[in-house]
Write a structure and sequence with these properties.
Layout lengths: L8 E4 L5 H12 L3 E6 L2 H15 L3 E5 L5 H10 L5 E4 L14 H29 L2 E6 L12 H21 L4 E8 L5 H14 L3 H11 L8 H11 L11 E4 L9
Parallel strand pairs: 1-2, 1-4, 2-3, 4-5, 5-6, 6-7
Helix pairs in contact: 1-2, 1-8, 4-5, 6-7
């Protein structure tokens, strides 16, 4: 399927690996010029070079911490008028509610709620003026059902979801959509670190815990970044202009609800 976005410009955050890289690759394959950011310069530059070589699209790498104002300024200076914005940032650490201080909550909200809000605010009105825009927020399956030991993420992701609900319905009249993708368990460093905490707590090996969790998923496995990226690219396409304000779960069937 031709996604109809060849020649468009996209910002993809936290794109050096994992789900962000999956989104960047899928958009590049659709012919989208990319501006990528991540904190790790070496990994980011390697990903940018890999995508350029594979697809031939222009790729600009901006090593920065997008959760800071300085990082966001650098990113937007590199791509001041994006047609597509993919918000993504590493999730806060797992733990127990009783152990979290207010500063832990502040950092989680800053990274996973206020940062995407700031980037949406900086880009959505230009998109509306130009008559095209696609914004995808990568959140979490915890928006549908809270995940034990991820209280910080549960709270910040739910807050972002509520914050986007109204602007998504205002922007769509100007052909600008705002949606969220809610990943369940995917083969990423984030998943491995979470499973490592669980394995240490249970006194078991990481491999044993990972195999058990994968088998428990209705799909019998974890998702891949390529699968995630394909969904993101579709939401960014011309074919998805009637989809907005939605939270699309992609978890292999793990969520047990009917709706």
């Amino acid at each position: 399927m031709d996604l109809g976005i060849r020649g468009r410009k996209a910002i993809v955050c936290a794109a050096s690996k994992g789900l962000g890289k999956g989104c960047a690759v899928a958009l590049a394959e659709a012919g989208v010029a990319l501006t990528l950011c991540a904190r790790g310069r070496d990994a980011l530059e390697a990903t940018a070079a890999e995508i350029r070589a594979a697809t031939g699209v222009p790729v600009t790498a901006v090593p920065c911490d997008v959760t800071t104002e300085e990082g966001r300024r650098a990113l937007l200076a590199a791509c001041p008028e994006p047609d597509i914005l993919v918000n993504n940032a590493g999730g806060p650490p797992p733990g127990d509610f009783k152990d979290f201080e207010l500063d832990d909550w502040r950092r989680a909200v800053e990274a996973n709620m206020l940062t995407p809000i700031a980037l949406v605010r900086a880009t959505v009105y230009g998109m509306m003026d130009r008559g095209f825009g696609r914004i995808v927020n990568i959140t979490s399956a915890s928006v549908k059902a809270p995940i034990p030991n991820l209280e910080l993420s549960n709270g910040a992701r739910a807050g972002l979801t509520g914050a986007m609900a109204t602007i998504a319905r205002k922007a769509v009249r100007r052909n600008v959509t705002i949606n969220a993708i809610l990943p369940g368990p995917f083969e990423t460093d984030r998943l491995r670190s979470t499973l490592a905490v669980a394995a240490a707590r249970e006194g078991r090996s990481l491999e044993e815990v990972a195999a058990e969790r994968a088998a428990a998923n209705p799909a019998g496995r974890f998702g891949t970044p390529a699968e995630f990226g394909a969904l993101c690219a579709f939401l960014c396409s011309v074919h998805a202009g009637y989809i907005t304000g939605q939270n699309l779960l992609i978890d292999g069937g793990a969520y047990p609800g009917t709706l």
